[in-house]
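A further point concerns the way the authors explain their paired sequence and structure data. Each protein is reduced to its one-letter sequence and a matching series of backbone shape codes. An entry of this sort, consisting of the sequence and the corresponding backbone structure tokens, reads as follows:
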Amino acid sequence: MTMSSIAKPDVRGFYDPRTFSIQYVASCPRTRRCAIIDPVFDFDEKSGATATKSADAILAYVQENGLSVEWILDTHPHADHFSAARYLKEKTGARTCIGDHVGEVQALWKKIYNWPSLPADGSQWDRLFADGETFQIGDIPVSVLFSPGHTLASISYVVGDAAFIHDTLFMPDGGTARCDFPGGSARRMWQTIQRILSLPDATRLFTGHDYQPGGRDPAWESTVADQKRNNVHIVGKDEASYVALREERDRNMEMPRLILHALQINIRGGRLPEPEDDGRRFLKIPLNALEGAYWK
């Protein structure tokens, strides 16, 4: 099959400058059906305030373009922003989905939070996808690519000629994602990156974050060919040299400021804590839980 014969979804990215995250709507041009990928639920850790501005901008785009939301797709439980998956499900009725290894991440973090009652079976989502599993967005076929390294449970979605690769490859000038979170592995990341780079060269790649190297404007779309030629962490590297580079960089990176806030939301599919008897919701922040984490 040539790239010219592969379905091409319409893709709209929504950049969140607070978390350097990109949220996506991928839609079928003929049927107007779409998927929302990695949506952000707004949170300010200084005030404890929450909001739905980011998610509502996605809903406005969906309405303005006459789209129907079929899927709400998480690539992994995020450590740097809250997921708006639950909020968007309530607004659209669409199915929430994530990779079928998410229970491994839940089991790890329920120990960190001392949360024995948390089901670690992925039941907080409507569907769990296995590696190689397929589904449709309208007329466009989607295949699931298990993508561990950044987390134990990460997956990518290959939607026609577009692949949503989350925290694996960034833009070529940004390199690759960190692998030092609990359950992460630079060696598994290298293997994941090789799978992504085995897609056809013209495959459009949509990354999950952009940290604007050198202060340039945000960007989030590249191709497999671009990454092979220009990625600053990949070009000229083999597995051993990549792992050495990645692990050295990770040793000197601070944890994301929201990691302990966000994971307790995101391992529950974007559900906020239940209100307590005064009507307020509370986050639980364990002290000294991430042993060995770099901090200044």
Q: What stands out?
A: The first strand starts at residue 10 and ends at 16. The CA atoms of residues 96 and 125 lie 5 Å apart. The mean pLDDT is 96. The two ends are 52 Å apart (CA to CA).
